[in-house]
## 1
Amino acid sequence: MATRGRPAKVLSSKDLLELEQFLRNLDFLKKNQKQANLILHSKQYYELDEKDIRLLKIVHREKIQFEQRQALITQIQIKQRNKQPLLANEIEILQLLEKEQDEDTFFRLDRALESYQKIEKAALENRIRLENEHKRDILNKTNKVLTEAQKKRNAENQLKYALGGIVLDICKKFELTLDPKNL
């Protein structure tokens, strides 16, 4: 039976080095990030217990999410440069970027990006759902019940097809040639 949920992450020494550098480059740290930073500076890899590794995995996942949210900033800025209409939360994100980055602004920006990311994901899922519904509607329309006139025409066409087959078969038996121009 297939396993469910997120696949198990095995942190390599490269992952830990990247995580340490990421934490060093952040202006402000969350509680988990501060604890992970302390663990990374105070313990060797072989000294880490299960609790430490679990915390490092959580912070590694937060790192990936942070990087995804930073990519959203670039997308919003491109949208602004292209003079596309901006949504209210996109305007809020751009305003937070313009402010001086103190701890409060930094975390407000992070929360705003997180909500924007969730809204974008929901919008994408909704768009996919609507496309699937549209495809399903088209399929249902093509599979609709035939009217009586259509059924009668189909029966007549089948009869014509069958009669034509019989005539061709008889012509082959008696070695007659049929000229399509002189029927």
## 2
Amino acid sequence: MRWKNSLAVLLGDALVGVPVTAAIKAMNLRELMEVTNDVIHGEIVDKTTFVDDHLMEGAVYTTLTVQGESLRSGEVTTFEVTFLGSHDPADAFLISEMPALQDVRIGSEAVLFTEAQADFGDRNVAHSWASVYRVERSFGEPVLMGKGEGSAFPTNTTLVSARDQVREAHLAIEAAKQPALK
């Protein structure tokens, strides 16, 4: 009996000592744009939630309706952007990777990196908090709130500068896709 208890303690200690790694990969602006289809800037005008079992049973998703423009194509329209999780207490489905509530409130202005998901009803998906950037207008010129080292926008930057950086990265990505001339 004593041997089994000692073995259980040793195994428990070994498990506690195993290092854990983060699930969200650090990506600069170009890297994030290479794995997403669009970058949308606009105002969040509506928010709804729904349950879908395609990833996991009982998973709750939030869909934001955003009136704005694509910073890649210049298209001005209404976009729907979906992420896993919900801030609604009635849904009881919070996850650590979802965007912060202050970044996705109705009436908020944001820049969102999205990926079209064919296997999820062609929804535009924002995969994590690292895909949604709040824009603040409280000190004059609109400012995109940075998210720190390892993100597309590590520091706060003006919206005009963010637009220019997105456009420059988009053009570089498109140029890299073109075959080299001999």
## 3
Amino acid sequence: MKPKAAQRPHGWNIALSIAAISISVLTLLLQQCEARNSRNLMQRAWMQVRSADIDLRQKLPTLRLLFTNDGPTPANIVLATVWYTLEDPFKRLREGEHPKQQSKDEGYGLGTVSSHGATEVYIEAKDWLNWKAQVHEGYTVAFHGFLTYRDIFLNEHKTQWCYYMVDELDVAPCPLGNYAM
């Protein structure tokens, strides 16, 4: 004996059931992915420039940068790249223009910075007298750089920074700021 039509499942009921199960599985996978990304953000290393100043205790005046890792895990393969520019503060550089003078990039391998740890970089002012003369002429000395590092999940991160000389003994963050990428 054949079941009555009302007792047999209709084709569209099966299709809707499969669609509902598929949406549930997809939602579960997206939630797991979001939870993993959230965990990775909370557990990764976060490098930044904590402070910058001019250190006169060295043979030549030296820019001292203090980098800190505010994350709960170490930052690995930490590299700092630094350069300086001489810029006229009253002249905004147009796209493609270059500052009056720019140094070559200098790299500093910092190795691993532990969680909640710090490391310092000293950049010797090789042409300090030139900088002082340019500052007196109205030019601004700006120190630029970035840190690259890997977190424990092997993702590479970059923190960009910029400081300019306020006077011969002090530096301040550039208007563009310092930020993690």
